[in-house]
From TrEMBL, chain A:
TM ranges: 66-84, 104-123, 129-146, 158-181, 196-217
Similarity field: Belongs to the CPA3 antiporters (TC 2.A.63) subunit B family.
Keyword Transmembrane: yes
Na+/H+ antiporter MnhB subunit-related protein domain segment(s): 104-212
Compartment list: Cell membrane
Protein name: MnhB domain-containing protein
Main location class: membrane
PANTHER family: NA(+)/H(+) ANTIPORTER SUBUNIT B, NA(+)_H(+) ANTIPORTER SUBUNIT B
Length: 233, 488
């Protein structure tokens, strides 16, 4: 009986939520937004240095958001590797000898690497960019890892940490260099818009792939643990 | 000058996060001390600049809102930036001695600590709804990482629970932001407020505001959504618990308060305001009662946070549909409550960490006899408790006095009972800890003595919270500086 009431209340809450959401969306879709942001964006696209509006928003107009979002990814990477077991790379349980996987790997990995490069380049004038390219790069890394290809740099050592930090550091350096030059934080100098955005995109791709791959590899939980405060370990 | 201060404020925590990621714990500690010094100086400088010249807007990347992101550097924001600098400096200093450098995972403490600090500054200064969301994410993930750091199954369980609550809260907030953007076409909070005040646009719907407030209340652990807080704050290392209770939960509350003060007049209503006030009151009573019942010392302090957070939500009824003067009084009271609770709770958690370290157990009844060995830490714990109870001359007293006046002036006498009962109940759980520590147990003489610095830090924080009541006037005058809106 209690269970029945629980389910009924839950369903009622969900229905009320969906109803309120629908009414709100209906109301909003019927009215014209007083500020035309896409129009404003199109007017300023020229000054951003890239031709694709999404890349312009992510790396120029709202680059502060992107900088902090990369920070969020780095945090996720840090939290992941802080729990990593250092021996997991040699874990025999992870070794597979699936011939289908090997065959796929031979075909797909080079193709995916090329695709990642293409996505990165495409970001300047059509959909693509660092996040997509990084995801594809990480996926090819996952495939190599499943196939048992040793990737020493993924061990929680200085190389991994350098890789995690690289994209974020370059982005941050550009930000502070522009502040030093007398402009605001993250204001790129007019002449270098495009090359700077390209450099940032490239290192970001690398670091995003590193974060995702590190999270995949360091999934096992730490064996040596810290006891709670006040409990003898 | 202010341009340099702003660049320093935004850049330092992020740069130090990267720097300490590449170093081990001991080297990271030295680097962190330097960073803390820079950050405290910059925050003080910015506070002084705003106190003398008034607030300003800082355009990131040189783009104006709504195209770019604006930071709102006003009196309230710099007050919290300075508070964060003080509390985080104390917690960082404490952690640098408290944490064991021999544990390999403690090297990740510093980068997470600095990212957390960066996120907090981003939230205090944020004037863009989506940018505030990013700041919240930065804070939540860093906080979850700190709770889970090298922990056992219990710590991981608490961290995952915390992560789920934080993500759900973020998503609800984000959905609200998306709806607001859909309606107004801008993400700038000031822009939306201006549109509503101008009256040219059709007034919005309440649902997006409710969604955002709901998500933020979940992240602030408002009753009855507080279930995730005590396990996470209780099981983290003490300097981490101090950061979480003192600053992290305040960030989501701060956004909720800013939303309410800007949009609440148009989108809110009497019933919504009263409902939030009632939930806050229930949090005060229920949280204090649970704090009184806890067996473990840090759980007592964690549940006390649930109760103290409850007071903050009285802001909503006390600023809705009242005169400007009463609203101002309530805002000042709540700001003082945030500041004094941050200082007192950080002091309490750090002192609790020292006590636990000393007796080697986290139970309240294990404190028997500790008063002879660690009087200094126990005294800090008590001083912080005095501020929580709201006795004069503490900051807690000044805060409750202002809230009391605001409730009476607005005719909402029913909040008086909560303010009084909350004070009495907090006295009950603080004295329970004291009673346990004065019992003379004959068989336990083995006390470990933490280093002097560990004991000094909570004392400084507790004294600051005690003295806040005496210097409330200058603090409040900067906090309520009118926002100029002009560029630097």
């Amino acid at each position: 009986m209690r269970r029945f009431f629980g389910v009924t209340i839950l369903a009622a809450v969900c229905l009320a939520f969906a109803g309120a959401l629908m009414i709100t969306v209906w109301h909003i879709s019927g009215t014209q937004a007083p500020v035309d942001l896409p129009g404003l964006l199109a007017e300023n696209l020229e000054a951003s240095g890239v031709e694709h509006p999404i890349t312009a928003v992510l790396l120029n107009f709202r680059s502060y958001d992107t900088l902090l979002e990369i920070g969020v990814l780095v945090i996720a990477g840090i939290a992941g590797i802080s729990m990593a077991k250092t021996t997991s790379l040699e874990d025999p349980l992870l070794r597979t000898s699936d011939s289908l996987l090997y065959a796929l790997q031979r075909w797909f990995v080079p193709l995916m690497l090329v695709l990642a490069g293409y996505l990165l380049w495409a970001g300047s004038d059509r959909p693509g960019g660092a996040f997509q390219a990084g995801a594809v790069l990480a996926a090819s890394g996952v495939m190599m890892r499943l196939g048992g290809i040793p990737m020493e740099f993924l061990r929680p050592g200085v190389l991994l940490r350098l890789g995690l930090a690289l994209g974020f550091s370059v982005f941050l350096l550009v930000a502070v260099a522009s502040a030093m030059a007398g402009d605001a934080f993250l204001a790129y100098p007019e002449a270098f818009n495009k090359p700077l955005i390209l450099v940032i995109e490239t290192v970001l791709t690398f670091s995003i792939a590193m974060v995702l791959l590190a999270l995949f590899v360091s999934a096992p939980v730490n064996g040596a643990e810290e006891p709670e405060e006040g409990e003898r370990g | 000058m202010t341009l340099w201060l702003m660049a320093g404020l935004l850049f330092t925590p992020l740069a130090w996060a990267v720097l300490t990621l590449l170093l081990d714990f001991s080297k990271g500690r030295v680097v962190t001390w330097l960073g803390i010094l820079v950050q405290v100086l910059v925050s003080l400088g910015l506070w002084a600049a705003v106190a003398s010249d008034g607030g300003f807007l800082y355009l990131l990347g040189g783009w104006q809102a709504p195209l770019g992101i604006e930071l709102r550097v006003d009196g309230l924001a710099v007050t919290f930036v300075l508070l964060t600098a003080l509390v985080a400096a104390a917690c960082g200093w404490h952690a640098s001695i408290y944490l064991d450098p021999g544990k390999p995972w403690h090297r990740y403490f510093w980068p997470l600590f600095w990212f957390l600090w960066a996120g907090l500054n981003a939230v205090w200064l944020g004037g863009d709804l989506f940018n505030l969301y990013v700041g919240l994410e930065l804070i939540s993930l860093a906080a979850v990482g700190l709770v889970a750091l090298g922990g056992q199954a219990d710590a991981l369980r608490a961290a995952i629970r915390y992560l789920m609550a934080a993500l759900l809260g973020s998503l609800a907030y984000l959905l609200g932001v998306a709806l607001i953007y859909g309606q107004f076409g801008t993400l700038s909070l000031a822009g939306v407020t201006e549109l509503m005040n101008s009256g040219d646009v059709q007034s919005g719907l309440t649902f997006p505001l409710i969604l955002m407030l709901l998500g933020l209340a979940l992240k602030t652990a408002l009753f009855p959504m507080h279930g995730w807080l005590p396990p996470a704050h209780g099981i983290a290392r003490s300097p981490v618990s101090a950061l979480l209770s003192a600053l992290v939960v305040k960030a989501s509350f701060y956004i909720a308060a800013r939303l309410w003060l800007d949009l609440g007049g148009h989108l809110g209503g009497y019933v919504l305001a009263q409902l939030i006030g009632v939930l806050g009151s229930l949090a005060v009573i229920w949280g204090s009662w649970l704090a009184f019942r806890q067996v473990k010392l840090k759980q007592v302090v964690a549940y006390s946070s649930v109760a103290q957070i409850g007071y903050l939500f009285l802001l909503f009824p006390l600023t809705w549909g009242v005169t400007e003067a009463i609203s101002q009084q309530a805002q000042q009271g709540i700001t003082l409550q945030v500041v004094s609770h941050a200082l007192a709770k950080a002091a309490m958690f750090l002192a609790a960490g020292n006590l636990i370290m000393s007796v080697g157990s986290n139970r309240v009844d294990a404190l028997a006899g500790v008063s002879r060995f660690l009087p200094f830490s126990l005294f800090s714990f008590g001083l912080a408790g005095v501020s929580l109870m709201g006795l004069p001359p503490t900051g807690g007293f000044a805060a409750k006095w202002l809230l009391l006046q605001a409730s009476l002036a607005s005719g909402q006498w029913w909040w008086l009972g909560v303010l009084l009962a909350g004070g009495l109940l907090s006295a009950a759980y603080v004295f329970r800890v004291y009673r346990a520590s004065f019992i003379e147990a004959t068989d336990t003489d083995q006390f470990y003595h933490p280093s002097r610095s560990l004991e000094v830090i909570p004392m400084i924080l507790a004294l600051l919270s005690l003295g806040l009541g005496l210097v409330a006037e200058p603090v409040l005058s900067v906090m309520s500086l009118p926002f100029e809106g002009a560029g630097p």
